[in-house]
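User: Hey, quick favor. My workstation is busy. Could you predict this chain's structure for me?
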Amino acid sequence: MSRLKVIFEKQLLHYLLLLILLSGLCAISRTDGFLPGQFLGVRTRTWFYIGVAIPIMHQIYVWLCWRTQLYYSLLTRLFGRSGFTYYSIIFLILMISKFVFILFLAISNKNSFNVNPIVSYGLSLVFGLLVLYVLYSIARYFTFRRALGIDHFDPSYREAKLVKEGIFRFTDNAMYTFGLLIFWIPGLLFLSKAALVVALFSHIYVWVHHYCTEKPDMRRIYG
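Assistant: No problem, here it is.
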């Protein structure tokens, strides 16, 4: 298989699954009373669209950077050792933006989800503790550089062992399974139906990224 073909490996499946997810979101967003409210003079519907668009931009960005770096060393050729730094900065900007715009959406759409606040706030606390444990486990055992994908840039990391300490004792994909619960917290705190739907979309879409982009990459990097 040519390098150009492997760059697009499983991306047709990626976009097919994305289309299915977007079709579901479109149907949900058209239901009566789903997107009431506004925040900072911006309607909930606009915050909803932005909240969906950023995760898509994020995963396409990661796919493009990872694959072109893995097979062409594009970023390190262009920027030398700073290639990973530049990639990481944009990655983190997009990650933080996902949370910020889900928060804005939750505020705009607050009190649209009819559930006992005690249940909602309790789940927020549990999710928050799990996210903190994930961050601790990454910092203590995994490192944030590996979490960002340094193994696509630095061949020396490709000899690193699978981490089985901290929260990684329970699952190899703790960052996706538990770390992304952070995006559910705004919707739970503000009882926002739209924010919870976007959090669900973001969480599912990361697993699409895992199976269509990350897993094939890991197979080539680690064998």
